[in-house]
Amino acid sequence: MGFFASARAAIIDRWSTFNYKPLYSDHLGMPNRRAFPEAHATWVPAADERRLAAYKLLTAYDQNQAAELAAFRDGEAARDRREFGDPSMFVDTITSYVLGDEQTITVPGAEHAGQDDADPDTATAERVQTLLREWADEELLAMRLLQTERKAVSLGDGVYLLHWDADKQRVRLKTFDPGFYFPIIDEDSDGSDYPDRIHFAWELPEDPARRLPTRLRRITYHLDWIRPQTANGVDRTSRPVRATVLSEPSDGQPAQPVLGRGDIVDGNGSITRLYPWSERPSYKTVYLTDAIWELGDLKAPVDVDSLPMDKAQFATNGQGEVLDQLDLYQDFIPVIHVPNTVPEPGEHWGQSSLAKVLQVFDELSGSDTDSSRASATTGSPILAISGKAVNGQTQYTAGPGMVLTLGEGGSITSVETSGNLAELRNHVHDLKDRAATTARLPAVALGTSDPAQFTSGYQLELALGPLDSLISSMRLARDHADRLLPKFVQRLFQAGQHPDWIGLPVLPAKLVRGAYTPTDKAAVLEEVTKARTAGVISLETAIRKLQEIGWPIEDAEDEITRIDARSFEAARALADALGNPEEVAAFLGREAPDEPEPPTVVLPPAADPLTLEQGQDDAAVGEQGSGGNA
User: What is the pTM of this model?
Assistant: First the structure.
C-alpha cells in the first residue's frame, strides 16, 4: 500500500501539458506548495488546484517571470536564466488575429433599412442595432474585448460579467480573471449547458491600517426556483440579511408570504413569472449574494461552495438592498465564459495558446542564456600568456592600449569562441521557428519573413494557411459567446426598464469580428471589375466585396445610388428599352423634364357639298366642248 501511495500519479487533464515541470507536478502530480500557495488555499476546491496553478505558471511566462517562479524549487541559480518576452509576443500576436481589425455588433435585416420595399421588422432591427452600437461605445466594448481575449489566449479562459447599473441607467460589462471564476459543475453535466451556480471568489489581503485581517470575498449567482418576496432585515445578531415579506394577519388568517411583482401561483403551487423577453412563464430566477468571510472563521474543511453563511457579512448595493440572495428578476446568469479552444466533450475549460509550446520556450530561454554567456567571452576573449618573464602568481588584465612584456619565448594565445556563439544563435532561430510552427503561426504572421518573396496574393494566402485554420477554430470556440453578449445586453436593458428599450423585441444580434489577414486589394479589384464587366455579379455584390477588403464605403445603398446618378450610358440604354423618361429620371435620381405641348395643326376649311357638285358638272361640260373642237 505504501508503494502505491508513493508512486507518481499520471494525471491527464486539460493542464497535463505542464506535467513535465517538477515545479508543477510533484511525485503525486500536484503543484509545488511554496510556488503556488493560492492553489492550495483551504477554500479552493481540490478539483481547481491544478487549474489555478496552471494560470499562475502561464502568467509567469507571459510576464518574463518563469525563472523567478522556478527558483522556489531549483534555487537562486534559476534566476540567471534569460527571458526575452517571446511568450508575450506570441500572446499579443494571436490576440490581435482573433479580434480582427474591428469588432461590430450587427442585427440581421438592419442593412435593408431605408429601402423602399423594407418592412416594419427592418426598421425595428435597425433601431436595435443602433442602440447596441451606442451602448458598445459608451461601455468601451473594444477595450473589454481586448482584456478578455488576452486572458483567454494566454490562460485558456476568459470571463465576462454583465449587470444592470441603476445609477448609470445602462448595462455594465466587466472582465474577470479566470482564477477568480468557480463554476459549480454537476458530475452528470456533459458540458453543453451552463452551470446553475457560479462563484467569483478571491482573498483580500490583511490591512493593518484599518485593523482588517485576511478575508475572503465571494460573489454568487444562483439560478433557482422563484420564491416569495424578500426585503432588508436583521438576524438575531443584528447582522443585515434578507427576510421573507409576510402579509398582515386578519380574521384568524395567519400571515402569508407575499409574492413578488408580477408573480402568480400555478395549479401545482409553484410560483411563475413572465419575463419581457419570453412568451412563456418561467419558474426560475437568479439570486445574487455578495459576502465576505474572515479566514480565521473558516475552521472546518470547507470550500468555496460550502462556506458557513452564519459567518458571512453581506454587502449592500447602491439602492441599499442587502445582497443576500437578492432576486434579480431575470432567468439567466449574466456571466459568459470564453474558452480559448473548443472544449473536449464533457469539459468546460479551454486550453492556452502557450500550452503546447512551453517546452520550446524553456529551451529557448536556455539557449538565450548560453548565447549571452558566450557573447561575453567573444567580446572579452580568454587569453593565455607564456614566456620567461611571466609570473604564474600574477593576475594580468588585458585592455585597450596595454603592452605586455613577455620575454624570451613568450606568446599570447586567444581562445576563439565566436564560432560557438554563431551556432548558438542559429539554434535560437531554429527554436523560434519550431515554436512558430507548433503554434501554427507562420513567419509572415509574425512579421519576420521577407515580403519580397510573395509575388502574388495567392502565395501569401498559401503561406497563411496554418494561421487560417488556427483562427477559424478559435473563433468557432467564441461563436456562442459572441451571440450571447448582445442577447444579454438586450435582456438586461429590458429588465432595467430603460425607456429606449420598452416595446422592442430581443433580436438575434451578433458580435462580428473583422478580417485578420492582409488582402491583395489590387487582385480583388481586378477580379471584381472583370466579373462586373462580364455581368456575372450584380453591382450590390461588387460593392460588398470592396467593403470586405477595406474600401471606404460606409453604406452600400448610398454608394450604388451615387454610381447610378452618373451612369448616363446605362440610362440611355434604359431609355431605348423602356421609352419612359420617368423611369430613366428615377434611375439617375433626377426629375424628368416637363415636355412642351405640341402645336395645334391648322387645316384648310372644308368645302360646301353643293358647291363641290356644281364644280364637278362644269368640269364635265368643259371636257365635252374641248373634245368637239378637237
Answer: 0.80
